[in-house]
Amino acid sequence: MIPSFFIILDKLPLNQNGKVDRKQLPSPTFTDLSSNQLKHNNELLHPTNDIEVNIHRIWCEIFKQNQISTDTNIFSIGGHSLLMMELYHRYKIEFHLEQKQNSLSISNLFQLPTITHHAQLIQQSINTIITLDNYPWSLLHLIQARASFAQERIYLDEQIRFSSNETIMNNMYAIPLLYRISTMNDHVSITRLCHALQSVIKKHSILRTALYLDTNGVIMQDASLLSNAFETHTFSVINISNEE
């Protein structure tokens, strides 16, 4: 990287070992550099919208300055890659972009290194988030398809190792879970429990996916919707005290 400016010294400060004492080197004064640039431009451009105001405040905090023109190149006032990374994360927090998919990237901030350009990039990211939130996503509604490689491996492994003519052991890869359900009146509605379970299975197709061999010997997966036969499954309710 090419330095933004050079400081001329009469001599380099040395430590007792004869090496350059970096702690004694004078720190660059970016304020003077910014002032010289303003004199060269002869005009200080102020923020024109809320996004530019917030970006200007962040820049002034980082560079310890009172005013920075919105058309100032960040690299001309001492900016570098680490500061750009800091700005990127500050932007995501300041404009609530950290939890959402957006188009803001560090490479774009590098290519457009002014407050005005950064404000435009952030505005585009906000517009992209709004568009994605309002977009009516639709499912592919795929019911049958060829099994994935992982599904084929599990299916064949279960058929070879855990099945026999005498004893059929199904769902060896299923993980049994035990849940404790607490209610205010010690009464559990079986109807509501069945409805809740059906809703979860209906929403997540992988929970109702079955594997089978088609007529050509290809392992297929079927995620058909639930039938009324599921409602015939029964639940056993057991009251367990806290001591147990």
Give a quick rundown of the structure:
The protein has 244 residues and is mostly helical. Helix content is 38%, strand content 5%.
Could you characterize what this model shows?
This protein has 244 residues and is mainly α. The protein has 2 domains: 22-134, ACP-like (Non-ribosomal Peptide Synthetase Peptidyl Carrier Protein, Chain A), CATH 1.10.1200.10; 144-232, no CATH class. Helices cover 38% and strands 5% of the residues. It has 7 helices and 3 strands; from the N terminus they run αααααβααββ. It has helices at residues 30-41, 50-63, 81-94, 106-111, 115-134, 149-161, 190-203; strands at 144-146, 210-213, 219-222. It has a 3-stranded antiparallel sheet, with helices on one face. A hairpin with a 5-residue loop joins strand 2 (210-213) and strand 3 (219-222). Residues 46-126 form the Carrier domain. This is Carrier domain-containing protein. It holds the Pfam family PP-binding. One of its GO terms (biological process) is secondary metabolite biosynthetic process. It comes from Adineta steineri.
Distinct helical segment count: 7
What share of the residues lie within helices? Answer: 25-40%
By CATH, the topology of the largest domain is: Non-ribosomal Peptide Synthetase Peptidyl Carrier Protein, Chain A
Strand content range: under 5%
| Annotated CATH homologous superfamily of the largest domain | ACP-like
Q: Count structural domains.
A: 2
